Every structure is written in structure tokens, then in C-alpha cells.
Amino acid sequence: MEQITHQTIIDLIPAYALNSLPAEEADIVAQHLQTCAACRAELAAYEHVVDALPLAAAEVEPSAELKGQLMQQIRNTGQTAVPAPQAAPTSWQQFLRALSGFLAGPRWQPVGAVVVLALLIGGFFVWRQATMPATQFVLTPTEAAPGAQGIIEVVGSNGRQATLTVTGLPPLDPANQYQLWLIQDGQRTSGGVFSVQTDGSQTITIHAPQPLPAYAAFGITIEPAGGSPGPTGERVLGFNL
To answer: Of 41, 76, 147, 169, which has the most beta carbons under 10 Å away?
Structure first.
């Protein structure tokens, strides 16, 4: 890879989540993840999808004919020792094996593999977005912190728990902290008060009074240490500005 950019890493994360990258590219992504909280959050979102994919496959009951064939083979072994039976592979395991064999074909390497992976993951995301409310909100920076990034990722089944991951925010003096605001119908509810590490990153847990997708906007401002009843300082990140 001639040039490694942040966008390049983001493009590689779907294949990284499926352990389908060549060793060299996988090492590059792994090194980047150690210092980029935003990409770690992106990877967590894809890993959540990978974990959920098996649940989308229907269970298949073996046929009576297959059972009869297996019993006949056992009877035919006579006195030959029979190895302990192993659990049959799940539908998800069969899918991964078939996919690995399919992608191993020379005609799919390297471009075809990326296309297939993108279609598989993209198709699942389309289905998930069509059947579930939004679960991720990307906060955009303001002129007060142009290099900042922020992602709110819903993690609770009721939509009220989430994580906020920020990067690139300037560390503040001890008298000030950042405060997240959940905005609905002009009302602003505090979603948490936090400070960032020396590299400008931080991850906090959000416990919202109502599901996160119900809010019209989110914002992060600079407030006195401990937080404020309402926004008083500069806004550094926001969603739906």
C-alpha cells in the first residue's frame, strides 16, 4: 500500500472484522487501531454485525434419511473403534467455510474478495437499517475544534444506553470540562461530563432518559468543571447542526 490515510483504514475495517485481510494490511490496521478511538468504534460496530449475522440464519433439522445413513455406517464399522462424535458445524460455520473457499479462488483475488465482502456487509447493514432505528450518530466538528471527531454508538437493546467516543479534542484546564447535550424540542438534557486524555480522546457511557434515536440533535460544549444546567460555552462537536 503506497499511502495510508485515515479513510484507507476505514475502508479496510469491514474486511478486518471478518479476518479476511492479508497479513500486511491486517498489521497496518491493528497498529492504527491502537491510537485511533474513532476507528476502534467503527470496528466495534462491524464486529457487532458479524456477531449478529449467525442469528439471521434459520436452523435446519437433519432429515430422517441422513440419520438412517449415519446409523448404517455405524453398524458397518463392526469392532472398529468409532471416534467420539463431534458437534455438527452450525449454519454460520458452514457459511464461513464456504465463503473462505469461494474467496480463495484466484479469480476473486484481490479485488473480487473486497467486492464480495462489501456486498455481504453492506447488504446486512441495509437490512438492519430498514428494520431497526439508527444506532450510530457521527458528530461533526465546529471551528472551535476543527480536528475533532465524535461517534455515538447505541449499545442497549432499549436504545437508552450508548457510548460516546471522541478524538482530537483539545485537553482543557482543570477548571473546565466537555459536556454532551441531548436535544429534543429545544430542550437540552445533559448526557455526561468528561475530560479527554492527553491525545484528545475519550470514551464515556451514556444513560439517556429516552431512546437515543428519538433525539433531534446532539452537541458537545465546553463547560465549567462538573457541568452546567444548560450550555454556556463554545460548541465543539454536534450532530444535525
So the answer is: 169
Domains of the chain: 6-55+93-131 (no CATH), 136-239 (2.60.40.200)
CA–CA separation, 186 vs 193, rounded Å?
Answer: 20
CA angle 167, 173, 175 (to 5 degrees): 120
Grid cell, residue 219, equals: 452537541
Query: What tens-digit pLDDT sequence spans the chain (241 residues)?
Result: 456 787 788 888 888 888 888 888 888 888 888 888 888 888 887 776 666 665 555 566 666 776 677 777 766 665 455 455 555 555 455 555 655 555 555 544 444 445 555 555 555 544 444 444 458 899 999 999 999 999 999 987 788 899 999 999 999 999 999 999 999 988 999 999 999 999 999 999 999 999 999 999 999 999 999 999 999 999 999 997 4
Residue 16 grid coordinates: 478486518
Q: Are 195 and 166 in contact (CB under 8 A)?
A: no
Query: How many beta carbons lie within 10 A of that of residue 85, not counting itself?
Result: 8
